[in-house]
Amino acid sequence: MVVKLVHIADLHAGKTNARLLNRNEDLLHSLEQVYTFLKEEKVDFLLIAGDIFDKKRPDPESQQLITEFLVKVSQIPTKVILIGGNHDSASYLSSFIPWANHFGVKIYSTFRKEDFVYTLPEKGIAFVLVPFLSERAITHLEEDSDKAKIQYAEKIKKVLHYGAQKVKDFPLKVLMAHLYFEGVKIGNTEKEVTVSQAYAIPQNYIPDIFDYVALGHVHRWQKLEQAPTETYYTGSLYQLDFGESGQDKYFNYIGLNSDSYQKVEVEKIKLSLKRKLLKLLWTKEQNESFLSQYKKPDTYVWVEIEVDTPAEFHLKKHTVERIFGDNLLKVTMRLKNQKRKFFNNPTKESSKLNIYDPVEVYKEYRKRRGKPTNEEILKLLRELMPPS
Ligand SMILES: [Mn+2]
Q1: Domain for residue 340, yes or no?
Q2: Which of 118, 128, 204, 318 is most solvent-facing, going by the fewest CB within 10 Å?
Q3: Domains in the chain, number
């Protein structure tokens, strides 16, 4: 049996950056490259590992982009299998299922233990499909956050091993999941990971019987070195935000051969990018030519300006705006020789902050900004989230 797969993830259709820069053009540019590849290589399955949309209720243009892509792929021999990510709304994705089934597109929007395995006996292959499982859905809001983390990881482990058990007799076995694993590298400033970090799953919880594990969630391409089998995040299809500034983007092409000595072959395919994001620091020592070398039609920038005073910042800001025009997404100030007030100096207690308690998080937030807590908000939070 020989089966060819392409693994992509984190499409984030409908993503916008500062100044409402819409990124669907970037997504389309990458999806077209994927489509051409599927067609030319006669790929059997396209795996999409979650975060199809950027928002729970996507705008119509993004919905159309995704629908057109799925319908287009359904007209070539490649079969699509997709799972929901943490950005996707399970109920929204489910609304695609009636027509998707008709077009041979398999959608696993939410985890159901009676339906998370897809088998094709004639091809000798079985897929275990684990969409994003919310931490809140499967743990209690514990006093002790470490306990909740262990509880979450153990439940995921059970799900993965239960799936492995169900497909063990197939010659070829593939797991696709939208999850966050321990020890992975993330884009520097990506917001969504900060909370999930606490819920990271140990890599050795992945059952070793799978021939390939297709992951979504982390936006940087990487192989999970501590996993017991071939396990990859392929990352996003374009630089989604400045946390991904300078990153190259890829998808994976996987060849599975149950009769070969080398059962799995993985090839990393580089995507050409429509637009690039770049974060620049303009120091006091550098003149304008430092900035102008980065002025390119496909490069969108965030410039941090180093200054001695806020007045100096406002002067220099005009220069930056003049140089980059519409390609300037963000300008920020960095005061020379002055420590940042809050974020670099967290209080001692904050290291023990229970991030699962909204009341505690709110109090710490106000404290770091040197502001009093608002009693009304505290009261409302307590009402909404009674201690479990
Ligand atoms: Mn994502």
Answers
A1: no
A2: 318
A3: 3
Distance 329 CA to ligand 1 centre (A): 21
Q: What is the pLDDT of residues 212-248, one digit of tens each?
A: 999 999 999 999 999 999 999 999 999 999 999 989 9
Ligand 1 centroid to Cα of residue 210, in Å, is 23
* pLDDT per position as a tens digit, 75-124: 999 999 999 999 999 999 999 999 999 999 999 999 999 999 999 999 99
CATH code at 172? 3.60.21.10
DSSP 8-state assignment for residue 351: G
Q: Which comes out higher in pLDDT, residue 17 or 186?
A: 17
CA of residue 217 to ligand 1 center, whole Å? 4
* CA nearest to 49, candidates 157, 174, 166, 170: 174
Q: Ligand 1 mean position to 218 CA, how many Å?
A: 6
Shared domain for 193 and 96, answered yes or no, is yes
pTM of the model: 0.84
Spell out a b/e string for 246-279, using b for 16 or more CB atoms within 10 Å of the CB, else e. Answer: ebebbbbbbbbbeeeeeebeeeebebebbbbbbb
Q: Are residues 93 and 206 in the same domain?
A: yes
